[in-house]
Amino acid sequence: MTTATFPPSARQAWLMALILFAPLGIVFWLILTASHDRAGAVAVGATLAGLLVVLYFILTRYSVAITPEQLVVRHSIYTFKLARSEMKAVSARQVAASADLGLVIRTNGVAGFGYLSGWFRRIGNEKTFCAVSQGPLWLLTFEGSAKCRQLALSASPETIRSIEDWARQ
Asked: What is the pTM of this model?
């Protein structure tokens, strides 16, 4: 089994944490200053701590695993699985930026600050799984009977070669 990882950048993690925690921090501050309600402050503080742990686990869940039977890409809360029997060939091309992917609709995913995770639709209504954080960006197209034939992936050239070798077997 071949495994590779592609973590989000520190900037992406910081901005996502800011978007999540800034509103809750304001609520926490308002509870402390307005009513001096310790129980409310403890509840909001515990919620902030819990969300921080959840965000950490979401942002650290990223991997590409290649076995003889299937390709599995895990990214944040989403997982893409492609059985070897569902595909005949793969073509890969490097993309300069996530804007060049041609994504038009987010169907079930997260997008922000160059971080894309989940299911999207491209121009032409093609279903695409995105696992984009930082580093080289690739668009893989699979031929065969798979439900999703497009994979946008942040990965090293070695990982892409491993996927291409797997597809040729």
From this structure: 0.80
Q: At 154, list the tokens.
A: 């942040």
Under 8 Å between Cβ of 88 and 168: no
Per-residue pLDDT tens over the stretch 86-127: 999 999 999 998 889 999 999 999 888 888 999 999 988 899
pLDDT over threshold 70, residue 148: yes
Question: What is the torsion angle, in degrees rounded to the nearest 10, for the CA atoms of residue 100, residue 102, residue 108 and residue 111?
Answer: 30
What DSSP designation does 156 have? Answer: -
Q: Which two tokens stand for residue 147?
A: 């439900």
What SS3 class is residue 93? strand
Helices within the chain (DSSP H only): 10-34, 38-59, 157-168
Single-letter code of the amino acid located at 85: S
Structural contact between residues 9 and 135, judged by C-beta atoms closer than 8 angstroms:
no
DSSP state of 114: T
